[in-house]
Amino acid sequence: MPQSLRLAAAGDIALAAGDRLCIVPEPAPEYGVCLLAAERLPRLPVGTRLSPATGGPDLCVVAVKDRPGRGDAPAARVLLAEALADGVLPGGTSAYHAAKTGLALAWITLSDKGSQGLRADAAGPAIAETCAAALPLCLSLGHIIPDEPRDLAALLTDLALTQGFDLVITTGGTGLSPRDTTPEATLRVIEKRLPGFEAAMLAASLAKTRHAMLSRAVAGTLGQAIIVNVPGSPKAVRETLAAILPAIPHGLDKLRGDPADCAQA
Asked: Which residues of the chain have pLDDT under 50?
């Protein structure tokens, strides 16, 4: 739902597309270039677009961070925003229109070697490309982490509940190797399992190879996000996602309380 908020800058802020700045609830020099919330900072998910009424480049919220309390200052949320174009945000207090259009995607590659820079990641970018071709994305960000179930469970929880991503897709770690623990980590955090997604992905993979029956990929929901495991090869990524992406928008609508009859959707 669109919101309005007022943000203050200590002086003019010149930005190039892709530059990032923090939006903080109180002065925080340690965060570098900042906008200060002139009123209570609303809870905004990643992918929210901030449009200044007084001119200047639009910003996109790309991360939500927790700021520890210190002294009399309580703990608070800090937003990291990215400039979508070149321009200057004027100093002083300005009104910003905040709205989110489209879906925010996070992808996670599980790879011990990839996380150490010893192997190029092709599967993660394949997720981004396949989803961008099928869904109206407003944000797409990736992560590469080792095959550690606790790390994955923590990251899934952060991306879904703190950051506010709509769709989180993991790649790798779904087979039978000793380090393949992605399904176990995912099952640890999801609230509602999506067996239909799992069946559709398996059927799509079995049409290509009998070895697909060894996959243990799972899918489910956490908060208002859909989480999906896909295999580790770029080819398998595209094949399995093609089977489920058409259902993602309607699934998210239902997850968020859409009362429409599914038969009429």
From this structure: 265
Q: Please give the pLDDT value at position 74.
A: 76
What integer pLDDT is reported at residue 265 of this predicted model?
46
Backbone φ, ψ for residue 30 (5° rounding): -65, -15
Q: Which of 68, 99, 130 is the last residue of a domain?
A: 99
Q: 244: domain CATH number?
A: 3.40.980.10
Strand (E) or helix (H) holding 256: none
Is 262 among the domain residues? no
Q: Is 172 left (phi over 0), alpha (psi -120 to 50) or beta?
A: left
Short-list 94, 108, 81, CA closest to 5: 94
CA distances to 16, 54, 62, 164, 241 from 35, rounded to whole Å, are 16, 15, 15, 21, 39
112-124 burial by CB neighbour count: b if 16+ within 10 A, else e?
A: eebbeeeeebebb
Of 99, 126, 151, the position where a domain reaches its end is 99
Domain extent for 22: 3-99
Tell me how far CA of residue 14 lies from CA of 5, 30, 238, in angstroms.
21, 19, 40
